[in-house]
Amino acid sequence: MTRLRVVVLGIPQPLNACRWKDDLCEEAGALGWNVMHLPTKGTSCDTVVQACTGADLLIWARTHGHNPRGDVRGMLRRVEDGGTVTVGLHMDKYWGVPHREAQVGVSPWWSCQYVFTADGGNEARFAARGVTHRWCPPAVAASTLGHGTRDRSRWPAGVVFVGSNIAATHGDHRSQLIAWAGKRYPTFRSYTKGVWGRDLADLYATAKVAIGDIAPGDWYWSDRIPTTLARGGILAHPTRQGLAGQGFTGEVMLLFEPYGFTGLAQQIADLTPARRREMSEAGMDVVERRHLWRHRLTDIERTALT
After folding, report:
1. Would you call 255 helix, strand, or coil by DSSP?
2. Residue 28: exposed, middle, or buried by beta-carbon count in 10 A (0-12, 13-18, 19+)?
3. Which of 55, 225, 229, 298 meets the CB 3.0–4.6 Å disulfide criterion with 5?
4. Structural domain boundaries of the chain?
5. Quick check: 198 and 190 in contact, CB under 8 A?
6. Strands 34-39 and 57-61: what pairing?
7. Has this prediction a pTM greater than 0.90?
């Protein structure tokens, strides 16, 4: 294993929160990398430059609205002048989301030498804005793999939705999906404020199916897929170009056409306990083999340092 020195600009979080930056650092450690995780917001640019002295990579794991204090663009150039490669990393979709699309190539974060996002298939459009972009499908940490504990006193045993619902970002499909499920399944529950950590594993261990959604566009999906499958959850998810190539097939998920809620209902009704166990194990397996952060970090190393 390569003993790289890496500085991650992120936002350290507790175990009961959304903590993909911490998962990223954990997986970097599993690769044998020497990692320093700095909070982006409130840290001075001078502190970042100093931390990067002798480092191989600066990975700025983006949180919207979080920037170091000072001349950020100048900070990145100083880091690069010191021999450290700068990498921007984020799991959001940008093209097709007006308030994000307008910012592509504008803020300093986009001026990293390489920018990796989950918004695939748009390399030419990114390049036209001066961004050297690479596709990075969402991933999870190995520590998230495994079944939770069934707990019907806290979590429903039927159909659930976990995730935000913002019309400007997600379009109308998500709202229609949630409304349909609410009418179809009397015990349906929607957790739009988010559930994290051990609670999320226990929720997926208890629920029969988690219905998912995705913002419009090809070659993009959220971390809902690896986050659910890693915990053994059964995920119903709209079809999307690129999923099968990443191992996300009908063997590990219930795939349905957008707005095809009648067909989805039939798939859920046909899901036997035996089939649920098979899909759960297959889903965890594909995440472990292909969708851990160590896999993405290896790709980043190969792209940025060779």
Report:
1. strand
2. buried
3. 55
4. 5-139+292-305, 142-290
5. no
6. unpaired
7. yes
